[in-house]
Amino acid sequence: MERKSRLRRLGVPVVVAVLVAACGAGHRGASPDGGGGAAGQATTAAPAGQTFGDLPSPCGPGTAKGATDQGVTDTAINIAYGDDRGFTGSPGLSHEVGDAVKAMIKWCDDQGGINGRQVNGTFYDAKITETNNVMTEACGSAFMLVGQGWALDSTGEQTRVACDLVSVPTFSVSPEFANGPMQYQAVPNPADETVGAFFAQFAKLYPDAVKKAAEYTTTLATENYSTKRGVEASKPFGWNWLPCTQTVNYFGEPDYKPFMQKLKDCGAQVVWFTLSAGPQLYNMLQAANQVGFHPLWLTETNNYVQGLADFNANHLADNVYVRTAYVPLEQAAQTPAVRKYIDVVKADGGDVSQLGAQATSSFLLWATAAKECGSTLTRQCMVNRLSKITKWTGGGLHAASDPGENHGPTCGMLLRLQGTKYVQVYPTKLGAFDCSPSYTVKLPADFVTVKLNADRIATNYLTDKAIRPQA
């Protein structure tokens, strides 16, 4: 059934992957200044020819008026966004998400807002464990959630759906949220299918090593799910998994060497993990070196961050390979959208990473739909518009995805960390993606842990009042 007719998530990308969400390098734990300034009238003209990569800017002056929905006035659109930067186990976690949305709000408001309405953002730090608390607060005032990235998104999903809070998130982690109603993400990560491109690509590079692969995961349920999901995605591409999965406490272990020794004794040549950059990951890599264990490491997009690159001044992560469907930041000179993202965030004093680029693409997706709604800016209009966007690249930030129908990209590339730099290794042509319809892997029914209706919407918290796309 066509997604446009389905009861669709009203709007809030990994990690990807998972726990994509909980990524984060850096230690900027302070809350960003969450707004685009006080609401006010737009100027009479936006900068001529303003674009974001190959995307015409959705921001600029206009004459839109009316208190059309919660959080919308004649002069302002009030949105909520946030990340997990206050998590004490990894200070600064995923802070690039909030940095990007804050900077994009300013970029948009400097052009006149959206149809003349200024965008005001309220920042919420979920700190991993407070997602439902911040969701409850956002429900009381926000028009929509835009570009948020919360690792434990499942814990706030019932609250979000109950208050009809449409979301265009940076990423989704839990299956409840990944296929939840009223949610559209720039690079979808649905519960019933996944992207297997990087497993296929890695198998082409190391056909023998993938026969001896092992999992490394943690006690965090969303991360554990993401790791298992990767194992399923690998199966069509010739991977064989050894029976020695290692599971560590997400909040840390006193000694990681026993876990690394078990993987070494098992004969693992490739280790797949989705744990985000931070003390736990660094301790793992140090422990592996201490026991003389030097496998190939394959991980999710959430580990394409400066923190891990800085850590690798010691070269302990030289064999870490990272999958991505985004153009690497190192290729900004050749990619206008990437250059624009970096310039906008740096000008606002923020930090950049691929998670930040994901947040930027989701903000642009939201703003594009909001512009089309004009003076009829309601959650219903946003769902209608978002459900019709079936090809999206964020102006050239990433491979094409299908937000409206909730399908991720059929393309990808592999990066390798070498010293303090990420280097593209597959395909070898810089900026090129390797694409194939076969890279979309349908997950088995017994792996999909939520019940989906005929429109692929999770039914956990679904009610008749959830906002549906209209013709």
From TrEMBL:
Residues 29-51 are annotated as: Disordered. Signal peptide: none annotated. The keyword Ligase does not apply. Residues 40-51 have a biased composition (Low complexity). Residues 98-418 form the Leucine-binding protein domain. It comes from the Bacteria. Keywords: Signal. PROSITE patterns: PROKAR_LIPOPROTEIN. Transmembrane segments: none annotated. Belongs to the leucine-binding protein family. PANTHER family: BLR6548 PROTEIN. This is Leucine-binding protein domain-containing protein. It comes from Pseudofrankia inefficax (strain DSM 45817 / CECT 9037 / DDB 130130 / EuI1c) (Frankia inefficax). The lineage of its organism: Bacteria, Bacillati, Actinomycetota, Actinomycetes, Frankiales.
